[in-house]
Specification:
The protein has 212 residues and is an alpha/beta fold. The protein has a single domain, classed as Maf protein (Alpha-Beta Complex). The chain contains 7 helices and 7 strands; from the N terminus they run βαβαββαββαβααα. The protein has helices at 11-18, 43-62, 87-97, 134-142, 170-174, 178-187, 194-197, and strands at 4-6, 25-26, 66-76, 79-81, 101-112, 117-129, 163-167. The chain is globular.
Length: 212
């Protein structure tokens, strides 16, 4: 079987990918998100460009295998929110998103350096935040949890539970839309069996994405 490589330092993406039951190893991409090539136009193009830059960097380093990479951004109106630089910016992002609906976009990329094959896609989820208080924001930021997350929050955080509702793929908001990834892997001729899909998180059963 072709070696599978996840180009990500995110423990959340590692846990999600493990649900597929496929052996993989992690190689952290050294691409800095603010230094990666930018994409003019739509934010989904930016997310795909960033994901592809990460995958290409690891593929060049490794020389074999199928490299998976992802990049998640939060879009509020016309403004793209990445990971906050510090606690102050994290608090500002959370105040900005409070009680409103925004979009979470994850770009996915696969690169096979052996064949030169590349593929990219993206998933969009609409997220409504609850009207949490300033005190809740302060407590959450003090924990340090928001600093490695786009938009400064985690939908799965049980203590803060910032999300009131969402439409679309739950795993996309966590950082790796599994059903969309399965489609890309099948197009790359990886054997994803129906049994593998049965091990996906319960949230995937409600995901509207159709696996091809």
């Amino acid at each position: 079987m072709t070696p599978l490589i996840l180009a990500s330092r995110s423990p959340r993406r590692r846990r999600l990918l493990a649900h597929l039951g496929l052996p993989f190893r992690v190689v952290i991409s050294q691409v800095e998100e603010d230094m990666a090539p930018t994409a003019a136009g739509r934010p989904q193009e930016l997310a795909e460009t960033l994901a592809l830059a990460k995958a290409e960097a690891v593929a060049t380093e490794e020389g074999e295998g199928i490299v998976i990479a992802a990049d998640t951004i939060v879009v509020d109106g016309d403004t793209i929110l990445g990971k906050p630089a510090d606690s102050s910016e994290a608090a500002a992002m959370l105040r900005r998103l409070r009680g409103k609906t925004h979009r979470v976009i994850t770009g996915l990329a696969l690169v096979d350096p052996g064949s030169g094959q590349q593929a990219a896609s993206h998933v969009v989820t609409s997220v409504r935040m609850r009207p949490y208080s300033d005190a809740e924001i302060a407590a959450y930021v003090t924990r340090g949890d928001p600093l490695d997350k786009a938009g400064a929050y985690a939908i799965q955080d049980e203590a803060f539970h910032p999300v009131a509702s969402y439409q679309g793929c739950y795993c996309n908001v966590v950082g790796l839309p599994l059903k969309a990834l399965v489609t890309l892997l099948r197009r790359a001729s990886l054997d994803i069996t129906p049994e593998s899909l049965e091990t996906l998180p319960p949230e995937c059963a409600r995901c509207p994405i159709v696996v091809e």
